[in-house]
Description:
single chain, two-stranded antiparallel sheet, globular, disordered C terminus
Amino acid sequence: MPNGxxxxxxxxxxxxxxxxxxxxxxxxxxxxxxxxAATAAAAAYQQEEGAVADAGRATSSQYRPWFGEExxxxxxxxxxxxxxxxxxxxxxxxxxxRARVDRISEALSGAGHxxxxxxxHSSPRVKPDLSHMxxxxxTRWANYKNxxxxxxxDPIPELAQAREPKLSRLLATYIHYREIGQHLLEADWTSNFxxxxxxxxxxxxxxxxxxxxxxxxxxxxMPDSLxxxxxxxxxxxxxxxxxxxxxxxxxxxxxxxxxxSALRILIRAASQVLEHQTSSSAESLPGDAIxxxxxxxxxxxxxxxxxxxxxxxxxxxxFLPRIANSGQQMSSKxxxxxxxxxxxxxxxxxxxxxxxxxxxxxxxxxxxxxxLRFMTEHEPPFGINREGYRAVxxxxxxxxxxxRDRQWAELKALSWPPWxxxxxxxxxxxxxxxxxxxxxxxxxxxxxxxxxxPQGWERVASVYSGWDHDLTPTIQRRAVGDGRFHSGAALxxxxxxxxxxxxEAWACYEACEKEGFQSHHDxxxxxxxxxxxxxxxxxxxxxxxxxxxxxxxxxxxxGDMREVEPxxxxxxxxxxxxxxxxxxxxxxxxxxxxxxxxxGRCLEFIVxxxxxxxxxxxxxxxxxxGHFNAGTLLAPDSTYDLSAVPVRLFASFLELCSxxxxxxxxxxxxxxxxxAFRPTHLSGVLEGRKLTSDHALIHAIDLLRRRRPAYRPAWxxxxxxxxxxxxxxxxxxxxxxxxxxxxxxxxxxxxxxWRGAIVAYRLTRRVLSLMRETNLDLDVDGFxxxxxxxxxxxxxxxxxxRQHQFEHLAGVEPKVGGDPxxxxxxxxxxxxxxxSISLRLKSDFEVLVGEDxxxxxxxxxLPRLLHVPNPATLHAxxxxxxxxxxxxxxxxxxxxxxxFEAELGEKRAVDRNGEVVMRxxxxxxxxxxxxxxxxxxxxxxxxxxxxxxxxxxxxxQCIYRLSTPAPTEVIDEAIQLVGSVDDWGGWPTDxxxxxxxxxxxxxxxxxxxxxxxx
Length: 1014
């Protein structure tokens, strides 16, 4: 006990408290998400727990009121009465088929740990649970739904008390007991918990103790996935892999989201547990148990760490049933099971990843190659079924064109269909068989040769591969295959997406109208994208894309980019259409007149890409009126439940608000929504300030604060807006002048932008703190936005203080002292603490890349980094450290880049202009180490300044530190590090430095604010 042993009076009081009935809300908590048969099964399970406890504890009846209002005897009589009319008592297998109760999840739900529950626990199940369903059954999901509906009202008979104990049930029981101790008595139940005789035998047989149960209960209840994974890792290190059952690792992987750092620990823990259980047991683990862990690992890998797909696949291939790995003769049943699992594994690998699906196709290909190698080297070889072939094709569709593919694509006519046109006699050697068949088409042919005829999915894949099913050519286009390949309109979606111009796409849509698919949401999404990209092209100059492709980017061909091409130079090459392609808004109005309401991806896209804030809100209101009240997103309070809004649509609205942050919300609402929005002053957005919700960006941050979504694009949309220079001027006015939005739309001057950068940085850090409270880490996009916000802040502070120094030298007294909240005082405060700001940024970078410190202890070959930053992110990170004058940080970054050059080189290879941007990052290192953009008189002016305690002295010290170049030894080491990597091109030349400094960012430092250097 934490406060000493119980007295006799205390023991009597505890007995009385335990016997008290709990409130109805507490009684219903464990069954909050159960209904029908599931509820009945949960009640039977709870009754069973009380019966099992009776066998080992004399006072176990004291806990029975926690499970329900009825006493155990009353419930027993009812159950007995319900089974008297039956011919016999149903078996345990029959009861399990009627309804399944996840004991651990129900225990955690009753204890209030809802954040760690699987996604399906709080919502209707939308896919089968492979924990107890046969994955090889083609009708598993239909059978489950039919059985559940048929037995929904069946009474559940009493379960037999004498049965084999299970560790999962024992863990759930322990969670129940611990919850009672914490909420009723606040007693030390770890020392008082006594397992039943059967459970005690089970624990001793497994070499486990109650202490292990307590550790398991603690880690499954931790809301932070990384903290829970770290506790599991420490437990394995302290007591060995034998102290962790496989179901515990599997249950932790059932969480809806986990971080990449946690996933790396769980992959390593799963390999250690499987290694112990397969090596210490006479028989191998069931293949389904190993495969279930793999399924959950791959799901999280696709979400947060695609580079680990090959490592997770290695785990499956290593720990499949031992007889499959040993090369012994397999029975037909074992061969069938392993064949199904391996083909299903390829299917899971090929599913689209959450971020950068095209750039991650290399990781998917490596994982699938490992599976194929394992299948062919096994004796007898495993066969590839239709699902396996489709997985291979799906990955090939997402990969860039090969050299032969590009040669073939360059010969296609500008008219439609794009037949090959020979430009020289040598082009006749490029035939369809030698150059016109992509790797995906060749795999399709191998699939047909194996006896799998073409179906709808294969026809769609063939269109993306460059050939329609009638053998007319199309444009080979990179595609990420998903469930849309199976929809009835998928073929028309593919035909629209493989077009090059908006005219070709519109002609295809008109043909689709004749087939009756014109209102299908996938078709609408495809044509809306084409129309929007045409508007974007026209806004950028009309012929910009083709000019860039023919000059600066010779490797960029139609199908390699989302943008559309301009019309052919000659009208006889045009594609005929009965009416010209409309704009997106015109097309939307046509759909409205036809009674077609947009939803799903279509609505998300047009809201995000709207031309104005008013237009985007109108789309939201008009198209989604039947699904939820649009006022939900506009009310600046908790009147509405934000979770009713689909999370992707929620993110689209946040991005809309972030794009038009200069427009007050109250002026952008349609008349129908004018009463739904009431501007208020928000005190929870920025500490010490009350900001008005009429500011669109402030309203977006408040929505994030209230909902806390686990969907990262919602957070990144706001972070990216805070890092854009166009959002800064009106932020300063909002914070430092008044809470009114009357002057938000006024043009912002340079000083407004500098001051707004300080506000944007504070808001960025506020958003990051909200993300951490939601257990979300920054991804590459979020970190890039953080670098932009920090760079803007450092540059703004530098320019503010530099301007005030000039005013001081000119005899104008700057307002340095006085109000500490003034923008000058804020700038001095931030720059004097720039070392801590730089330290926080470097800490965020370390979390992002996640260097593996336990690599030598791993049984699997895991990637060394969680995220490999692309050249643009490295460039922004180097610039930010440079503006903060963190020379040691720049040197450490160069050392890190040299150490992980292999990973950085692979990343550059898949990025457009990766080599160019990487060279720019190297040039930035020299520019910021040498402070090459500053006139020499700037350093001399600040040199020798002393801090006498007044504002002017502090100002001069800050400017001197930011203007002083790096020490000579730091620059010399940087030269050596850059020269050690041949691909970096050596130390930047003076011409490269001068060209880099001829940039908008540096113009303020030259006399008169011009680009010309003195």
